């Protein structure tokens, strides 16, 4: 078959995959609707003081967005969460890869990771405030500390589980360390990194709010603190919806397409040979 | 001394900070500093940082916390006691008159082992009750959670401090005079109980202003702040609504009406430490007897009190 | 040279020398340690006792299993060794493609991921990956086992031409005596547990002159030798 | 070689592995010591009001343990954390496996998981209080909600990445669904589950403290709240040390040996063939 | 029956029937679709067009790659099919061990994880796994390609005995015409792109009577047929 046909085939495959993706998007939407229905149900049962209905929350959020007051808060929070996430992702993936390659490094790192993973953010808060002040630094640091162990452990395990046979191939053909990383380790490790990244992304979103609640004056967390102190449950839920909505957007616009791209070889490699 | 370039005031989102905010808003300290700022503190961590980092010159805080910090070696002086009565029971039951009326009931209590809890315990013991056995205390993490439990009818009674009481009453439209039957009531005044049971004045020296760092060694500055604080407090008590608006602008957590309501009922009076010392020592002594950790293990020495 | 895994002795008293440009075939029963020996020669294992000297520059190996990187399309898999040598992308793709075409892999197959190739295609891709770097020493572990007779004879030709062009030495493992006789200058017979070299055989006839008839005749003869029969646990022939 | 020799070999292998493990234990200890040194350093720099020295914290903890007041709190917290962890581990692993098998189920589950992962615990707290009251229920639920997504995503990814060829083998030899699970899926999936479990275990430990801080009267979290409000930093750090110590103990006594056992085949399978 | 992957036609007009007890060999160039056909017969793929009827009870397959479960020791891998049929553990281990011994795998090898086996040992383990369930239909994809001549001849005998004992039908893929001639009752020749069956050949001589000389002679004859040469892309013979 000619080279053109090969390219045509790739296009067909990609289209088929996208079609599949979109089709299944309905499944995702359906499940979100189910979630909203459960929320509605609970809200009806308990009354608006405890849990406002989705409608009320969305309406309040609409109001907040319309008068422009919500955008900056959302942007600030998203900025902090993404910064902390990106940091933990970069540092965690790299150190995890390094620890996965060397058994000694991994044994040395493990207890520290456990300590970091299990240390409640409250223990860090004062140090973070001291080091980074009341600006972005503290929430970013808090997010970083919370997400780092998750990413690290994933990367380490991924590296450790690389097939020894492929490692030998890399050695045999004299791949440079950089090529080994990009062409041999990473493609395998990403399949471990992705669940870790997804978990860390969710984590960063929720931790940033906790940190903002405690330490800053702006962002969704601070706004949440205000609406909570006014016992304004509709506004509280509106902020939470804004938060989760941003997270969903980031995940489905950023992480999911990336994942599908990087892992596409699995799709085409799944049928029997 | 010359004029300071920057003077930082700080306080929690509570009644004691109200005059501080007014001082900043009205430029009451223009004479002593070029720039005056207010920075709220929300939790003990931020307070610790301020105590350490010289990030603030004058900080409003509960008197027991001030004693605690002093005992932990922080160079500070208490320059006044301004908050004398902010503790109330809030209840769904309009009839309760003394703590004994809550016997056997469930009460939401913010901050376990903190000052309100200890005061409650002291008062209960004074009338022959055991706080642990005769009441069902439900500890929550913050006044907010207590309010939420009250409003959502998960508990019927709570021990709250102003302005949380006013916030809760406003939220349920129970205050000041609602057309429909009020839902929640400002019930037993713990200050009254204190006076009645300990046979003292009906007030408790709960919070005041502390001078930190360089300010702790500057009596002239302390005097200036003290005077301005007293003037601002007086203005606020006369103009509660305007004052409330000022505060709410700086501290989102509070609403103007609640601040105004709170000003109307709280016992706020700026007494220099020298005048309050006897009462304060009695109060700290009581706390120390109940739980020494509350004030850092021992009664503060004379260096704690500003002259 | 000796080698063992854990406490199991795998190789014993191996003394083997491959000269530049020479083709050495290694035959022996399954599990006798041929692949281990190849791994040692490639430097992927270090010997338990003894040492390995190599004056070859680049070595390339085709493993017994294809071991293609599952996340790379076939073309990129073949070009892997070239990529490691920083050959520009256009050049390495062209070279890999030409080589693959000569091995009967079409563009369609080159565009697939390895899991979508047939077994024989995978081993051809692995072979092409080893050929692509024009190595000085080529280590082949049952390179032609998964191929049909037509392809085999084509690839024998290809191997001969590549060897002639690059002057590479070849150390190959095979189970097919005919293949060994057709391609090798020297045939080593191993026996197992622990693996040692029990017989050597030099093939003097130049590769070009070994036609089918010659190979058939020599194989039939070869297989009658008692030490070969012993190594492969074939029943001894009835005395003639 | 005889069957006895085979067994002897296994013993030798196991001993060698344990020796290795113990030896590397020193590495872990060394890194913990490094951590303590860093703590000491920071404490010296900032003074006891911000961060007490490790000595002070350990001494306070010793005092608390001696007078018997700390054990029940530690036990309560460990019980809650372990309960929440075990729950999320069971439910998350099972549902994740199920979602990994069916593409539709995974698409339906994903957004819900994202929502759960990103929803700050504060949003749940009031509902949890309503549903479970002030006892163990609330912290256990909070821990469950926080850990579940991590475990779920790991299990799902593990299931999805099982080699299609092995799946065919299972089909060919007519393995029952149960056998497929235990003999084919699980051995592969655990290598994805372990990092998720480690992350979730750390998470459960820190979340339980947050939940206790907010909602209950006993446990390490409640004790921490009290010592914080008393500005008693030595006691605060003592409680945190108790918390992290328990976590380390659980991880190295429970999870790590389990992991080594289940993944032992990788060790023996790593050298070239 | 037709089949395709994506939009590539792989098999066309396949009409194939395997009778109980019969041994059918499938030969053809690499990549022509033999493994695909076997997968279809095994029910692992469903045909794009057409259908597959099977009246066989249990089928077992040996794949082209060994596909042993890497986390099970070799013995447990061999016993997998028996485990699926709920054979008690003692019995299945004994049976697996006996079978493995007959294939030349010793206890030491049975106690290893598959990754520590040699290539030939892995394929013997995979073969033993398929034999262990005494299937009615045995599907073999290049089962003997990785084995040496000694083992091959032993396993040919084993296969013949198993077939006789269980009466199983065999559908086997091989690249070795001699092997096909030695073992099969019917030989099908496929050609590629898209794969179709181009020639059939019945072997009338009973398996027991096919000795080395017979096989050599028939292979030499077989390989001269024009349609076979065409299928394998061998150069046409010079006219004689
Ligand atoms: N990683 C390993 N760990 C332990 N033993 C191993 C390992 N690799 C190979 N062996 C053992 O070493 C012996 C020789 O293996 P090797 O792969 O060299 O055989 P081989 O001659 O290539 O056989 P084949 O022709 O079947 O490929 C075998 O008994 C095998 O079980
Ligand atoms: N999963 C798959 N996806 C796409 N194409 C495939 C897939 N599996 C096989 N093919 C293609 O189908 C064709 C036939 O493959 P098959 O494995 O049946 O060949 P084969 O006859 O077994 O060859 P060999 O003798 O080399 O094993 C090949 O062109 C191959 O690329
Ligand atoms: Mg081998
Ligand atoms: Mg095939």
Characterization of the model:
The complex is a heteropentamer, with two copies of chain A (273 residues), one copy of chain B (307 residues) and two copies of chain C (240 residues). Chain A has 273 residues and is an all-alpha fold. Chain A folds into two domains: 1-41; 70-272, MetI-like fold, CATH 1.10.3720.10. Chain A has helices at residues 3-46, 54-66, 70-101, 103-118, 121-132, 137-160, 164-172, 177-215, 219-229, 233-262, 264-268. In chain A, helix 3 (70-101) runs parallel beside helix 6. Chain B is 42% helix and 22% strand. In chain B, helix 1 links the parallel strand 1 and strand 2. The relative contact order of chain B is 0.20. The model of chain B is unreliable at 175-181 (pLDDT under 50). With 240 residues, chain C is α/β, with parallel strands linked by helices. Chain C has two domains: 1-58 and 136-234, P-loop containing nucleotide triphosphate hydrolases (Rossmann fold); 67-133, no CATH class. Chain C has ten helices and eight strands. Chain C has helices at 34-42, 74-78, 80-84, 89-102, 107-110, 119-132, 149-166, 177-183, 212-222, 226-231; strands at residues 3-5, 8-11, 23-27, 59-62, 137-141, 169-173, 186-191, 196-202. In chain C, the strands form two sheets. In chain C, strands 4-5-6-3-7-8 form a six-stranded mixed β-sheet, sandwiched between helices. In chain C, strands 1-2 form a two-stranded antiparallel ribbon. In chain C, helix 4 crosses helix 6 (119-132) and helix 8 (177-183) packs across helix 9 (212-222). Chain C is globular, with a radius of gyration of 18 Å. The mean pLDDT of chain C is 87. Chains A and D meet through helix 1, helix 4, helix 5, helix 6 and helix 7 of A and helix 1, helix 4, helix 5, helix 6 and helix 7 of D.
Key features of this structure:
heteropentamer, B: 307 residues, alpha/beta, 6-stranded mixed sheet, 5-stranded mixed sheet, 11 strands, globular, C: 240 residues, Rossmann fold, 2 domains, two-stranded antiparallel sheet, 10 helices, 39% helix, binds adenosine-5'-triphosphate, binds magnesium ion
Helices and strands in order:
The complex is a heteropentamer, with two copies of chain A (273 residues), one copy of chain B (307 residues) and two copies of chain C (240 residues).
Chain A: H1 3-46, H2 54-66, H3 70-101, H4 103-118, H5 121-132, H6 137-160, H7 164-172, H8 177-215, H9 219-229, H10 233-262, H11 264-268
Chain B: E1 4-11, H1 18-26, E2 33-40, H2 44-53, E3 58-62, H3 63-71, E4 76-85, E5 87-91, E6 106-110, H4 115-126, H5 131-134, E7 136-140, H6 143-151, E8 157-161, H7 164-171, E9 185-189, H8 190-198, E10 207-212, H9 219-238, H10 240-250, H11 256-265, E11 267-272, H12 273-290
Parallel strand pairs in B: 1-2, 1-3, 6-7, 6-8
Antiparallel strand pairs in B: 3-10, 4-10, 4-11, 5-8, 5-9
Helix pairs in contact in B: 1-9, 1-10, 4-8, 6-7, 7-11, 9-10, 10-11
Chain C: E1 3-5, E2 8-11, E3 23-27, H1 34-42, E4 59-62, H2 74-78, H3 80-84, H4 89-102, H5 107-110, H6 119-132, E5 137-141, H7 149-166, E6 169-173, H8 177-183, E7 186-191, E8 196-202, H9 212-222, H10 226-231
Parallel strand pairs in C: 3-6, 3-7, 4-5, 5-6
Antiparallel strand pairs in C: 1-2, 7-8
Helix pairs in contact in C: 4-6, 8-9
Bound molecules: adenosine-5'-triphosphate (2 copies) and magnesium ion (2 copies).
